[in-house]
């Protein structure tokens, strides 16, 4: 099973920016922890980060036919990008949206996600551990999809 983890703008600055909101853990450390968890489930992870909306959209589209699911932190694009929303909807892959901070305790503009309605689930406010929760969730969703496909083949 292959899961692509897509990180949006400024996620590469984790551990340096607004530590009181996002914590001290760096993006690379989060990815390393995810690799350990994924290895226990025989899942392959691919990581991608960009500060550019078009590159994020290209990566989402590349997942079609090559990945079983997506974990995405669209960061600031959460609140503004119809294009990222449309790309997620177009590939029709199980997708979990992750936010490190609890966006509902922050500014009003951060409380509206254009992405959530096209995702399988959304995890907010658990800090870097949210990525682990997203991984467990996406693996469970993908496993259920595989079981359904297998059952349909037997009919």
Which features characterize this protein?
155 residues, 5 helices, 5 strands, globular, alpha/beta, lyase, Rossmann fold, 3-dehydroquinate dehydratase activity, amino-acid biosynthesis
Total of domains? 1
Shape: globular
Distance between the ends: 24 Å
Task: Please mark out the parts with pLDDT under 50 across 5 or more consecutive residues, or reply none.
Answer: none
Count of DSSP strands: 5
Per CATH, which architecture? 3-Layer(aba) Sandwich
The fraction of residues assigned to DSSP E strands is 15-25%
CATH class call: Alpha Beta
Q: State the major sheet.
A: 5 strands, parallel
Side-by-side strand order of the widest sheet: 2-1-3-4-5
CATH superfamily: Dehydroquinase, class II
CATH topology: Rossmann fold
How many separate helices? Answer: 5
- What is the C-alpha radius of gyration, as a whole number of Å? 15 Å
Helix content: 40-55%
Secondary-structure element order, as H and E? Answer: EHHEHEHEEH
Average pLDDT taken over every residue: 94
Name the structural class. alpha/beta
Pathway: Metabolic intermediate biosynthesis; chorismate biosynthesis; chorismate from D-erythrose 4-phosphate and phosphoenolpyruvate: step 3/7
Binding site for substrate: 73, 79, 86, 100-101, 110
Active site: 22 (proton acceptor), 99 (proton donor)
GO molecular function: 3-dehydroquinate dehydratase activity
